[in-house]
Amino acid sequence: MELNVLNEQGNETAKLAASDAVFGREYNEALVHQIVVAYQANARQGTRAQLTRADVHHSTKKPWRQKGTGRARSGMTSSPVWRGGGRAFPNTPNENFGHKVNKKMFRAAMAVIFSKLVADGRLVVVDSIGADSPKTKAFAQKLKAMGLESVMIITKEVDENLYLASRNLKNVFVVEPRYADPLSLIFYKKVVVTKDAIAQLEEMWG
Fold this sequence. Notes:
The chain has helices spanning about 20-25, 30-40, 105-120, 135-145, 160-165, 180-185, 195-205, and strands spanning about 1-5, 10-15, 125, 150-155, 170-175, 190-195. The protein is an alpha/beta fold.
């Protein structure tokens, strides 16, 4: 397949031959959903530490006698059914929320996502993109002139000027091909890829 190559004014300047295996696949919603859910789950950390029956502060005295009160029998106030009691299945800091995803499935999902971006007109190929100085204002004006407000930029190498100029822009995310993740590709309205980065993406996901 062929991708349109645009200049900094947003005008088409050339055509770029691209791999059908990466940019021409049929959309598989179930596969993309599974990969995105797994990506978010694998990024999740166990940050909660809830108390078990043994951890809560309680008395070991039996609240009332076993029989004759008409109430349900109770052994101690640390029971999970009591207010202030311990949790039956507490969250712990070492809890693992990860999902296992094999490499072949992840590779196929990334190719499907890139193909969907091309089909929807959300993927833009440029010769190169950079910042002449580490000034956020100048780079923001450059993106605005190209009609890019919410954009993920994938370039072969992120130099210091480009990194410094883009890091404080709320809806701009600049990465190298190996750091392109499925969630960001779906989230941003436009994905700008340089010509040399296209070759890397084809090598990684083809």
